[in-house]
Specification:
Blueprint: E1 4-7, H1 13-24, E2 28-33, H2 41-54, E3 58-62, H3 68-82, E4 87-90, H4 105-133, E5 136-141, H5 155-176, E6 180-187, H6 209-215, H7 219-230, H8 238-249, E7 258-261, H9 268-285
Parallel strand pairs: 1-2, 1-4, 2-3, 4-5, 5-6, 6-7
Helix pairs in contact: 1-2, 1-8, 3-4, 4-5
């Protein structure tokens, strides 16, 4: 049966691809994005055109993850129109590049606000409904940088994604007794098919940059070229959308806790396998193994 799904940051990249793929699979999908009447109006029109052309239930909803009021209003709109909400996909994110020293604490906090606190605002809006109905799926779009290879000049983004991953892991145990399942989809470095690098931010304060450019000249170009060379040429960003569709379509209680989509194989999957095993073993040791699967399903 089709599910009602809201995806944050669905104007472009993984979010837009997943929204279309999930709608193609028969779900009612709300592609959430901010400023739907302004700078994202064209993306709203694209989603509407896709829905009409493919005869699928793809909708859009205004949602700025930086605002609790906006998150509350978006979830209220979904519930009013669709009558239910089954899946929340935390996809919204923002990347910045540059020497870590060059970023002010306020700039780091802004990255954290989007990538971490944004998920908390959406959860606070959506989880009361999911808890009341005692079923649902919270699907987090993570990053292999959390545990895999981490090139320089991306520290604010990497730190925020690591924080989001830690939040997702804790939420998984805290939601299990409400029948709510958690999956973390972990994309690797896709250098094309998304706008991460193209729309990424940079430090506003420039005084330390010359010193780094002297020692690390052309580093970001080098990293981008090497990452592109590591990934197979036939590895499109739509692989992440395909993984999301598969997870959503899997019955409750049978979904994997973590799914890696990493053509470059930066090592994250290997490290995560150990970390997730230790988590499961520890919860079992302290008598909380029931938290490893949503209640109402076979563990």
């Amino acid at each position: 049966m089709g599910k009602t799904i809201v995806i944050t940051g669905a104007g472009s990249g993984f979010g837009a691809l997943a929204a279309r793929a999930l709608a193609d699979a028969g779900h009612t999908v709300y592609a959430a994005m901010r400023d739907t009447a302004g700078r994202n109006a064209s993306r709203v029109a694209e989603a509407q055109a896709y829905a009409a052309e493919h005869q699928v239930d793809l909708r859009t909803v205004e949602l700025d993850v930086l605002s609790q009021e906006s998150a509350d209003a978006a979830v209220a709109t979904v519930l009013s129109e669709a009558g239910t909400l089954d899946v929340v996909v935390h996809n919204a994110g923002h990347m910045v590049t540059g020497p870590t020293e060059a970023f002010t604490p306020e700039e780091l906090a802004a990255v954290y606000d989007t990538n971490v606190l944004g998920t908390q605002r959406v959860n606070r809006a959506a989880l009361p409904h999911l808890r009341a109905q005692e079923h649902g799926l919270v699907l987090w779009i993570g990053s292999t940088s959390t545990r895999g290879g981490t090139p320089p000049y991306l520290a604010p983004y990497f730190a925020a994604k690591a924080a989001m991953d830690a939040l997702a892991v804790s939420y998984a145990a805290e939601l299990a007794r409400f029948g709510i399942e958690t999956t973390i989809v972990v994309p690797g470095a896709f250098t094309s098919g998304t706008n991460h690098f193209a729309t990424g931010g940079h430090p506003a304060e420039q005084t330390v940059l010359p010193a780094y450019e002297e020692r690390y000249a052309g580093l970001m170009d080098q990293v981008a070229q090497r990452l592109a060379a590591l990934a197979p040429a036939d590895a499109p960003a739509s692989l992440v959308a395909d993984a999301i569709v598969e997870v959503v379509g899997t019955p409750l209680g049978e979904r994997p806790f973590r799914v890696h989509v990493d053509p470059a194989n930066d090592g994250s999957e290997e490290v995560s396998r150990v970390a997730d095993r230790i988590r499961a073993e520890f919860l079992t040791r302290i008598g909380l193994d029931d938290l490893l699967a949503p209640h109402g399903t076979a563990a």
